[in-house]
Amino acid sequence: MIFLKEVSFHGVMLDNLFCTSSVEEKLFLRDLLHEGIKSGAVKPLTKTVFNKDEVETAFRYMAAGKHIGKVIIKICDEKELFEKKPILADPRYYCDSNKTYLILGGLGGFGLELADWLIIRGAKNVVLTSRTGIKNGYQRMKVDRWKSYGVNVLIITGADASNRKDCEFILNSAEKQGPVDAIFNLAVVLKDCICKNQTPESFEESFRAKARATKMLDKLSRSLCLKLQHFVVFSSVSCGRGNAGQTNYGMANSVMERICERRVADGLPGLAIQWGAIGEVGLIADWQDNNKELVIGGTLQQKISSCLEKLEHFLLQDCAVVSSMVVAEKRVGAYGAANIVETVANIMGVKDLKTVAQQTSLAELGMDSMMAVEIKQTLERDYDVLLTAQDIRNLNFAKLMEMRDKDLEREKANNKNNEEAVEIAGIHLFIRFISDNNDLSTDTCVELETRMDPRRIKVFLLPDVKGCAQIFNPLASKIRSTAAVLQYGITQMGPMSISEYADHLLPYILPKAEEQRGFALVGYSYGAVITLELARRLEKRGLSGRVVLIDGAPEFLQKLVEQFLPSTTEEELQNNVLLAIMDNIQSALSGKLLLDLEKCITWEQKLESFISHIPENKVMFSTEDTKKLCEIIYMHILTVQKYDLSSLGWIRAPITLLKPTVQFVNMSDEDYGLHKITRDKVDIHYVEGNHFTILDSDKVMAAINGESLLDPKAFRKLLSEDRPFEIEEPERSRV
């Protein structure tokens, strides 16, 4: 009809026009377009705009084929400065075609897949090591295919990476292909049996492929592979979480992880990946029978494609030890996508619940006998819901939604109770002393009645946040040297900064330290910070000594205050401190106290309100002493909050850190960041108990007395020595 009306259509190839036309024609077209836009004759195409964080939605919208015009991603406003990266995205790992990639155990199941993945990502030089070489057609096919891509593939057989000469040969052979960019240790030898039946030989075999080989690769690659960017070892969940019968295997993996941590600390690449069970290839695939799902070490099989996807993420991050696994527990709580309603809907084939009547039974919705059996088994296995066959037939989505809502409420209540329990327990252990019914000494330096061995250096102890000596009274009879507690509590001095406390207390230590030509300082909790300041001042005067910290350090205390007493203003911190103390006295009164504190303006008014809420049967101090005690707690917490960690200087003394097995503050550094403070080593020892009961341990007494303690990191020292590992009866670092 349109053509019958003498309407004609013309297709214009603008790209050809711009390539062949003269400048005059281009200017004419520009002016024509400009005039058309100005007059309104030329209008932009219809557009649908998505924000920069809606890329997936935009592509799905475009793929549906129902849109008109253009689909546009709005990166930023037209007038907005384009200074920062507009979109956060996972980076992609690429290989350097001029460099070499070394894979120990490269002809195994995972090794072949890893090599294939590296080649797809651009690797042109690949070196694979194997104990036996190519022994099946699949391996030959993969190698021939890689070579057809133009990849240089070198296979080294019979070389033992744990042997120095063989390891040098492997690395030098790889370097001849091109500078080594990445080393992957996938080698594994399993000698599983219960711990009682383990032998030195079974440990030796597991250690050779993993611990010893990794140790030798670490040592030699530092001098031979100067352009190394990735040093990757494959560890196991049996190391990170334990697995019965794999003591030797777990220990070998643990050694590799410690080597990687040390490399990262030295500024070198290092990555240990704790894999769970891996399906499709490798050992688990060999064990699997008729595709039956296996549970290994509490994990299900992870697909190799998923492993390689996670490997890419791991290679592009900075953590030394990472983990990837599929936990065997399949149940997803009400917070997850696969809740009980969606699970049954998926079995029934219902895509949209709005299209079905919620009160209609599943039988009426078309549930057959096979569906009924699957629903019954799924509810029992994943949700602990036991229903009879008749109950299943009468079940409807309304009842399922009721189950889901109850499950959600129960989970929320449990999470809330757990969070409150952790919070109260944590701050209660730190601020627990308001009800102590002990005499308060007015002396700054309180001598303890100890066993007084004159041959030992006098020990100076610094107490926790209340600054009072009685916390150490139960320990006095077990201390073998003369000892004194330096107080900074309610009766000794006014509020000071941590540095001012150290300056004030130094004269009480210095004469004795100069007489003994050394010092011994013990800091507990808050006292650990002042202990480090005192050690720094004593060392400036040419003295040397030892430092013992009992569950305390600057970073630890700041993290504790941040976690349990969060605040943005001093008024908020004051309220939180008083509420924390009230939780120790009678937590039921904290809510009422908070309402009254919010009405108070000054600190003095808040103290008066706090005193008025203390029950008569809980009053253990005079009103004045209670006020001073609250004041000193608040000021000490404030000094921790304001303490400048960036200005800390080094100390030369070694530090012994005693940590409880029950901890309420999660720290990224095992040593609470103390390695940033001392030029010597930090010996870490775990003691059974929590922040308070740790003082009851004989191990704490041994540390105070300067007696020998097992260094849990002694094994790391062995790694740095060029000698074979010795399998000895292990001592325990925990009591």
Topology summary:
Elements: H1 14-20, H2 23-39, E1 47-51, H3 55-63, E2 70-74, E3 100-104, H4 109-120, E4 125-130, H5 137-148, E5 152-157, H6 164-177, E6 180-185, H7 200-224, E7 230-236, H8 237-240, H9 247-265, E8 271-275, H10 282-287, E9 299-300, H11 304-315, E10 321-324, E11 326-327, H12 340-348, H13 369-383, H14 389-394, H15 397-430, E12 445-447, E13 459-462, E14 483-486, H16 498-516, E15 519-524, H17 527-540, E16 545-550, H18 554-564, H19 570-586, H20 590-597, H21 603-613, H22 623-642, E17 655-660, E18 682-687, H23 698-704, H24 714-720
Contiguous runs where pLDDT drops below 50 for at least 5 residues: 287-292, 330-337, 417-425, 433-437, 711-715, 721-735
Q: How many helices in DSSP terms? A: 24
Supply the helix-strand structural class. Answer: alpha/beta
Question: Average pLDDT value?
Answer: 80
Order of adjacent strands in the largest pleated sheet = 5-4-3-6-7-8-10
Molecular shape: extended
Helix residue percentage: 40-55%
- DSSP strand tally: 18
Instruction: Let me know the largest β-sheet.
Output: 7 strands, parallel
Q: What Rg is obtained from the alpha carbons, in whole angstroms?
A: 35 Å
- N→C terminal distance: 95 Å
Oligomer: single chain
Q: Report strand %.
A: 5-15%
Catalytic activity: acetyl-CoA + n malonyl-CoA + 2n NADPH + 2n H(+) = a long-chain fatty acid + (n+1) CoA + n CO2 + 2n NADP(+)
Domain Carrier: 334-411
Protein name: Fatty acid synthase
EC number: 2.3.1.85, 3.1.2.14
